[in-house]
Amino acid sequence: MHRIPVSVDGIVVEYADRTRARQIARAPNASATRDRRTRQIVAITLEQHGSDYAKKHRRLDPRKYSHDKETAQNPHGCWTFRKVPAMALGDRLSSAS
């Protein structure tokens, strides 16, 4: 079975079969490259459609023990430790010993 490369900004993100390639080619941000004689899709290039992926997100990860979020006690750009409940530390301390 022949797989068709699907790329974004020159990076192949998927090798699709013909059915999936036809589905992807119908997207508004897709441009299909076709064989001149058979008119079958030989490659698909996707353009960035919108900028939702580039939205700022919170950098606060609940598994991390520090953050640089600005608060009344923490000035902009400074890192500080998060307050961790004693119960969460108790589980980790007992498993470490």
Strand fraction equals: 25-35%
How many helical stretches? 2
Task: Compute the average pLDDT.
Answer: 77
SSE order, as H and E?
EEHEEEEH
Rounded to the nearest angstrom, the distance between the terminal CA atoms is 55 Å
Helix content: 10-25%
Using DSSP, what is the number of strands? 6
Q: What shape does the CA trace take? A: rod-shaped
Q: From the alpha-carbon coordinates, what is the Rg to the nearest angstrom?
A: 24 Å
Q: Which strands sit side by side, in order, in the main sheet?
A: 2-1-4-3
> Which parts are unreliable, with pLDDT below 50 for 5 consecutive residues or more?
none
User: SS-based structural class?
Assistant: alpha+beta
* Main beta-sheet strand count, sense and barrel state: 4 strands, mixed
Summarize this entry quickly.
With 97 residues, this protein is of the alpha+beta class.
